[in-house]
Amino acid sequence: MAKHVTTLEVGAFLVNCYLYGDDVTRDVVIIDPGDEDERIIDAVTRRELVPRAILLTHGHLDHIGAVAALKNKYRIPLLIGRGEEVLLSNPVANGSAAFGSPMTAPAADRLLADDDLVVFGAIALRVLATPGHSPAGICYLDEVNGWLFCGDTLFKQSIGRTDLYGASLEELMNSIQSRILSLPDSVTCFPGHGPRTTVGAERVNNPFLTGEYFV
Questions:
Q1: 0.85 exceeded by the pTM?
Q2: What's the pLDDT tens digit per position in 113-168?
Q3: If both were cysteines, with which of 10, 35, 96, 156 could 61 make a disulfide (CB 3.0 to 4.6 Å apart)?
Q4: pLDDT at 214
Q5: Which residues contact 35 (CB under 8 A, 6 or more apart)?
Q6: Range with the lowest mean pLDDT among 92-96, 198-202, 210-214?
Q7: 3-class DSSP state for residue 25?
Q8: What count of Cα atoms within 13 Å lies in the side-chain half-sphere of residue 173?
Q9: Are strands 110-112 and 78-81 parallel, antiparallel or unpaired?
C-alpha cells in the first residue's frame, strides 16, 4: 500500500513533526510532536487522518512538547526507546529546566529496542537503536519505501549535538556508522530538523562522516 509523509515544522526549535501513514486506510503515526499541538490536530483533521500512535525518536524538550495534548486528544499509545524514558519525566535530563520552563511528558506505553517492529494496521517500521545524541535515541525505518525517520542522529551535512545529558560523540558516530551508513545509499533520511537527505549524500558530503570536520 502507498504511504505518505506530511512534514510540519513546529515550535521555536523548528522541529520536523512527521505524519507518516497509509494512503488507503488513512492510518498515521505522529513522529516527534515537539510543539503546536493545535496545528498538528488541525493537519490531522483536515487530511481526515486516523492517528494510531505517537512515536518519539528521543525525549528532548523540543521533541515532546505536544505529546501530552495529543495523547489526551486521541488516546493513543506513546513509544520511545528503552532507556530514554528518564527524559520524559526529568526536566533536567530533557533540557527544559535550562530554559526556565520545566517540562515533562506522559510515561511511554511501550519501550523499544533495536530491531523491534512497530506495526499499526498497514504501517510497519523497524527500530534502529542509535544512541549518542541522547541516551537511547532511535530511528524508524520504512523498509519498503526506503524512508528513515532519524531524529537528531543525522542531519543534512551535520550530526546531532553531544553536549547534552547522556550524550556521547563516540556512541553517536558508532550509531551512524553501524546502523545508518549500513543502509543503501538510496534511503531517504527524514531528520528532526532541516531538510531531508539521503544516506548516499551524507556518506559523500557530510564532513562529520568523511573526516573533514575532525582534521
A1: yes
A2: 999 999 999 999 999 999 999 999 999 999 999 999 999 999 999 999 999 999 99
A3: 96
A4: 56
A5: 10, 11, 12, 13, 15, 62, 65, 66
A6: 210-214
A7: coil
A8: 11
A9: parallel
Q: So what's the pLDDT on residue 1? A: 66
Per-residue burial over 74-107, b = 16 or more CB atoms within 10 Å of its CB, e = otherwise: bebebbbbbbbbbbbebbebbbbeeeeeebbbee
Question: Which sign does the torsion angle of CA 37, 43, 48, 50 carry?
Answer: negative
- Count CB atoms within 10 A of the CB of residue 114: 15
CA pair distance 162, 172, nearest whole angstrom: 8
Q: Per residue in 75-104, pLDDT tens?
A: 999 999 999 999 999 999 999 999 999 999
Q: How far apart are the first and last CA of the chain?
A: 46
CA 41/CA 31 separation, integer angstroms:
13
Position 84 scores a pLDDT of: 98
Amino acid of residue 167? A
CA 58-166-170 angle, to 5 degrees, is: 100
Distance between CA atoms of residues 150 and 31, nearest Å: 10
Give the Cα separation of 103 and 67 in Å (integer): 11
Identify the pLDDT of residue 215.
43
Residues 6+ apart with CB under 8 A from 45: none
Measured distance CA(145)–CA(209) in Å, rounded? 24
Q: In sequence order, what are the residues at sequence separation of 6 or more whose Cβ sits closer than 8 angstroms to the Cβ of residue 179?
A: 114, 128, 129, 130, 139
